[in-house]
Structure formats: structure tokens, C-alpha cells
Amino acid sequence: MNKTKPLRVGVLIARARALENWELMILDRIIAAPWLELAAVFTHSHPFGDGKVSKLLSWGARLEASALARQPAYCPKHFDSRHHFIDVYDADNDKTCTADNITAASLRRLKLDLVIRMIPKSMADDAIAALPFGEWAFNLSDQRSADMAWFGYAEVLARASTADLVLYAKCGSEADRLEIARAAFNIKPSAARLSAFVRERSVTLLMRELARLADNRRFTPSAFVDPVGAHAPSLGNLLRYGSIVAGSISRKAFRSVKTKLHASPAIWTLYTGRGHIGDFDPSSAVEIPPAGNSIKADPFLFQHQGQCYLFYEAYSRSDRKAHIAVGRFDGNALIQVGVALERPYHLSYPFIFRDGGEIFMIPETHHARRLEVWRCCEFPLKWELHATAFEGQSPADSVLIRHGGKWWLFTNLSDFHAYEDHCSELYLFEVDGPALKDIKPHKRNPVVIGSTDARGAGRIFEHEGRLLRPSQNNTHGIYGYGLNIMEIEKLTVDDYRERRIRTITPSFKAGLHGCHHFDATDGRYILDARLTN
Q: Which secondary structure element, helix H or strand E, spans residue 242, and what is its range?
């Protein structure tokens, strides 16, 4: 980070209106960040302009939010409206500076670098032009009135695969809305739930981009953002929207009842075939079917003494938690060997790897609120706890690789207040190896944001000179809908960049509704697939 001068940030909010959780989280984190300075908090007396919606829409939105998007109040650790000023007094003009009357000269006196707008109404163009990095806002901030927010309604009505969160800057004119960052998130059963979830994710996206700007002071957004955005739903669409939401909730409730009665079939199955990450053809794979209601998922292959073993998440419908099981291949048949690891909490994603002459495993243990590294004492069924990290946090689907002479840990941490989610943020750390005694967070964390690419889906491969990362494609309202192959184009202590080169959808076999994990070794590959929706 820039060591000499923090970014001076202003925030624009609505006057006489309680701050929402996501707004409080942003103010709280700006104050906590040493590379940022909360220099002004402006209020707007007409933050929503003349935008209004019908009383029926407003009532329906409040009911939906209460029923489907209720969340505990966020308690700030740093921000306090009694101590952090809300309006800025302009002594030269003997008046309080608000968004209604602030001038370019006032902003220059405050030496603001940028203003974050949390309401639809912008400051005047000449005032924005005085800001070196402009006025920043989210598209979801534009999609609201005094009575309701409608971000997410259009996506649910259209049965869209994802909803886009866009952070943009306005730099002095109505036409200049320039994209800073964008992330796509999986659709939720209702707009209220989707909107609340994305607002919480927006905090992380904003703080990442502010950190990037504070570090290098480079600001060159180029893509233009549509200034119109989605409109409030019409009364004509309200009935159709209600039908869609009711159907989603009914299906979810029905699946829940079947699960409790142990009446549902196994959700996941495995497919194996011959090939590598660069050329595998899932349509030619052979199924390793579940036995009854047993479930096999998150498969990892491991070569040991000339034989191919499979470590995987295993449980049946009657189990309250999963354990790690291991089998051995005989051709394409899987011979059960036993239970490799079982704990009082849920285990999955048994990433297994060698370091020198030792074998380690990092299973997913986010229910234990930490990351665990296990060392093999006697292959394949005896393991001892070797190291722990991220105590009190919620890491999932962790992978450790050695690249460029350094150890790198990839993990899906859930940075959350009300909505824990491991599908939207990929974090990267430089570490000292499996001991995890020295952990340095990457400067651009989270290096990937969005449910279409962020979550890990297996080990990372060095293949034909390229670094390839399987990731989950969580879209269409389905966890584990598809599988991506991402090429990591840059991995250094200062930067991270990847691109999607392939997406595998469940259409590779009839009757599938998802696929979300891949592994390969010695010419064999394996992936899991979702049987039910």
C-alpha cells in the first residue's frame, strides 16, 4: 500500500434515513483501513429524486424482505455517527455542505480523491469534475426509490443465469459512467434475498478496488456502463414474479421434506475416463454409480506404489455429516478401502498431495471454523493433524501449490455478516508450505469475485507450460451447475490474473443437472456430477 498518503474518501448518503447494513459495513471498513481516510460524509435531502413506485409494490417488497431477506443488524466496530461527522461545514460560505449545494471549490478545499455514492442522485457534474477519481457508485444503488429497492427483480423475472454487480465511476458528465469492476452472482429464489446477498458482496468488491487505487494511484477505467439500468417492476409483472418466487420456495421446501424423510436419491455421482485436463472428453466417461443413497463427491486421485487411489467426500442421506473415504481403482471399477478421516464435524474436498517424501491432505473443515492440514502416518487410512490456520474463519476448498519457487494457498474464505457463502470470493496467500506458519495475504485479495469463477473445483495443474485451475460455475440458481477450466496468466506477489478457457456443463450426459469438481493423474481423470436439481 502507499505508505505516505491515504486516499481521502467522501461518502454520499440519504438524509434522515437509517443506514443499511451494507452502508455501515463500508463506512466501518473505510475507517479501519490505514490506506483510506474518511474525510467527509455528505447527505442529500432528495436522494431518490422523483422516483416512486406503487403502494402495492412497496408493500410487497417490505413483506418479501421481512420473510426472505431478514438479517441481524450490523454493529460497527469503528464508525459512530456521534463521532464521525455527517455534514461538512463550509466556513467561507457560512453553510453546511450537502450534496444539494456542494461546489467544486468546496471539494477542492476538502482535498477529496473520490466520493462513494450510495443513493441514485449524483452530485452536480462540475463538482464531480473536481474529484481526481470521480464519483463511484454501484448499479444496485441506482435501482431504488424511497419506498423500495428493485435490484434483482428483472433477473428473477427473466430467469437469468446470474445477476451482475457493477461498480462504476462518474467523471463529470452524464455520459461518462466508466466501469471499474464487475462480478456476476448466482440467482437466488427472490429479488429481496438476491439484493441483500449482493449488497453484502459489494462491500468486498469496493474495498478491493479502493485498496488497488490506494496502492498504485492508477485509474484508467474504459468500458462504458449503461446509464439507464433496470426499471422498477410493473404491476403487470408483479403476479408473474410472485408465481416464480412461490414456485422456487415450494420446490425448496419439498426437497427439504424429502431429505428429512430420507426419501431422496443420491445427489452426486462420479465419472471417470482417460485423458488430461487439457483434452478430457466427459461424454466418453464411465459412471461410478452411487450405492443406494450413498453420495460420493469432491473426488481426488492419488498415485501410490503403482496403484491409483481415490479420496472423496462420502455420506448417506441418513448421515448428519460427511467423512473422507478412500477406494482403489481396478480398471474402471472402484474397490472400497475404508474411511481415511472422520471428525465430529463435516469433511469434504480431500485435497491430497506430496511434499518430498511425505503425504498431506487438506480437507474442507469450514464447519470447524479453521483450515486443517493432515499428514499421513500409514497410507491410506492413518492420518495425524499437522497444522491449522485461519482460526475462527470460514475457509473452504483449499489447494496448496508450489509455483515460481514459492508456495501458494488458494482458498474460498467467506467474508460475511448475514450471508455465509463460499462460492463468491477466492483468496490467495503466499505461505511457507504445509506447516502454514508464515501466511502472507495477496495484495489483490480476493483475487477473484463472483460465483461464476471463484470457487475451487479441484487441484491446480501445470500442464504443457500453463497453470490451469478448475473452478465451479455456480449459475442458474444451482450450486455446482458447471465446471470451468481457468488459465492462470499471472501469479506474483503483486498481481493475479486468470481467464476462462473452457466450461463443462451437465449436458455431457443425459439426466444430469450439474458438475462441479475435476481431478486427473497418470492419464486418468475423474469428475463428479449432480443427479438431482
A: helix 235-260
CA 174 vs CA 38, 43, 48, 232, 385: distances in Å: 26, 21, 17, 21, 58
Phi-psi region at 337: left, alpha or beta (left = phi > 0; alpha = psi -120 to 50): alpha
Question: Using the 8-state DSSP alphabet, how is residue 95 labeled?
Answer: E
- The CA distance from 374 to 410, in Å, is 17
Q: What is the DSSP secondary structure assignment for residue 122, as one 8-state letter?
A: P
Tell which residue, 470, 366, 484, 350, has the closest CA to residue 415.
366
d(CA 279, CA 337): 30
Identity of residue 186: N
At 272-320, the pLDDT tens digits run 999 999 999 999 999 998 876 688 999 999 999 999 999 999 987 667 8
Phi, psi of 176 (to 5 degrees): -85, 75
The secondary structure of 424-455, three-state, reads CEEEEEEECCCCCCCEEECCCCCCEECCCCCC
Dist. CA 364–CA 313, nearest whole Å: 10
Amino acid 349 reads Y
d(CA 385, CA 376): 9
pLDDT digits (tens, 9 = 90+) for 37-82: 999 998 888 888 777 788 888 888 899 999 999 999 999 999 887 7
How many other C-beta atoms are found inside a 10 Å radius of the C-beta of residue 473?
27
Q: Strand, helix or coil at 92?
A: coil
CA distances from 415 to 75, 78, 208, 287, 449 (A): 15, 18, 13, 36, 11
